[in-house]
Amino acid sequence: MAAVRVLLLSGRPESVSFAQSVCGLLGAGPGLGPWPTYCGLKRGQLVLSDRRFPGASARLPLQRPPFCPFSALDQQPRAPGAELPTNRGVDLAVAVVLQSSDQTVLLTRRTRTLNVSPNLWVPPGGHVEPDEELLDAGLRELWEESGLQLPQGQFFWVPLGLWESAYPPRLSWGLPTYHHIILYLLVISQESQQQLQARIQPNPREVSALMWLGPDVAAAVAATEDGTETPRHLPQDLPPSVLAVELEENGGTRPLVLPTSTLLRTTPATADSQERVSTGTKFALRLWLQHLGSVTPLPCGSGAHWDPGPAREEQNVDHPPTTNQGSGKQSA
């Protein structure tokens, strides 16, 4: 059995099996969330609880999509032959919401050839390796996907929130084969978008395009909530397109004028690889905008909070300040 990555604290830490809904185990009700969750952010591991516990270093909003397959499976009988893995737990991933000094954030479009979430716009991110510090995992994934290495002492960071992710994302697409908790980290660079863009060297095996989103377009994207009937209140002056950079087959890049409507698409009921922004990314963008003070805070006082604790531990993510200065250390 693989190393336990996500644990729930109920008296003592217990692993979460692949088929269990993490949000459900933490007492998520019928609402859409998010739910404030206490976290112990450790090397290669995440401990979660709905109550404060010794060693909890943060209280973060935890959310899942309204159509989360694990939530649906909890509420309906399992069809014959519809078996989920019994020897796996919930995996841990980290994604970096990289903010430039001029307040834009980097999104990358996953290639069509990837087995999981192809053709979706997401922040750079991926699996956390065993015993890897969570910030280091995010910086490693940023480097592997975009070629960006942030200079030592020239960025700050703060955890934004947690997302329960499944793929396929809906039961109507098929039974889930991947189950993750994604930790979104906001990394605030002291460099401008232009400075960062000049150093980007995208990995063509994982990235087919990239773009920088400002708060106005990000707010419109975040407002398109997948799986709900929430009416869209989009700004009248929303630009019809955004400028992106697309990779060419010869290794070069070219400008891409992307219709804004592409970014406003929601997850369809039937499986396809239609280009759109992932549901978890919309959640992360909303948290980013909340951090900027650009939107109404999420309900239930569920924004990210650092909890004062005992002596500072060695893990980077246990530092108590709201925003942390990065060491720039990366795992190659």
From TrEMBL:
Protein name: m7GpppN-mRNA hydrolase NUDT17
A GO-annotated cellular component: peroxisome
Organism annotation: Physeter macrocephalus (Sperm whale)
Reactions that this protein is recorded to catalyse: a 5'-end (N(7)-methyl 5'-triphosphoguanosine)-ribonucleoside in mRNA + H2O = N(7)-methyl-GDP + a 5'-end phospho-ribonucleoside in mRNA + 2 H(+)
GO molecular function: 5'-(N(7)-methylguanosine 5'-triphospho)-[mRNA] hydrolase activity; metal ion binding; NADH pyrophosphatase activity
Keywords noted in UniProt: Hydrolase, Magnesium, Manganese, Metal-binding
Positions of region (Disordered): 300-332
Listed cofactors: Mg(2+); Mn(2+)
Function: Acts as a decapping enzyme capable of hydrolyzing monomethylated capped RNAs (in vitro). Hydrolyzes monomethylated capped RNA after alpha and beta phosphates to form N(7)-methyl-GDP. Shows low activity towards unmethylated capped RNA.
PANTHER family given in the database record: NUCLEOSIDE DIPHOSPHATE-LINKED MOIETY X MOTIF 17, NUDIX HYDROLASE, NUDC SUBFAMILY
